[in-house]
Amino acid sequence: MNIIFTRPLIDSEDLMVNFFSSKHKIIHMPTLSISSANMKPINTKKFDGLIFTSANAVRFLNLENEEKNIKCFCVGSLTERSLRIKGFNNTIAASGTVNTLKNIIINSDKNLKNLAYICGDVISYDLDKELSKEGYKVSKIINYVSSKITVLSEKSMDLIKKYPPNIALIYSKRSAESFDEIIRKYSLAELMTQCIVMCISKKIEDFFKSKGWKKTDVFNPGEELIKIDQIKNG
Length: 234
Description:
single chain; five-stranded parallel beta sheet; alpha/beta
């Protein structure tokens, strides 16, 4: 199948390799540019635990000290692996959804009440507010920002024309907005008639439906290949 990846290469390299191994055709079309928010260093001694809902938050993490044993809650295995590479050894990962992560935090050590939520400038779920309702003190710290990419390279354009996409993987609301804008800007709708837009959440799927997209679906992070093989095999 012909698959569009919209994440930055650094976030999708391993997954792309898995799809290449499964004989899928990959079209890399990044829709977001990620950069540091130049955050002040975090003093981990002020917190009982850290929360990460993106590997980008780990990539731009800036610590005042080298305390690596602090409890770290991660939205999924990719984020946890990024922390492990940095030397953090007290990590726990959810199944890839923020709601599951919230439940894990609530059901964890009751002494972990003062938490730092490290995230980007745009989030799809107010985890800090939800945890505050449960009695936690949560400091939201933005350490990276994202900007939309709405310019399509000639290489990507040629690949889309040569290999009309069957699947497009979308990982955030802002990425969805950028993707939709690109398709309209470059008049690619006719080439996308057989494309299923696979979204990381129902909220993102609803966005595409509001824009008139007919073929949409929702996937769980880490299960992209399973979902696509199910579609392929009918």
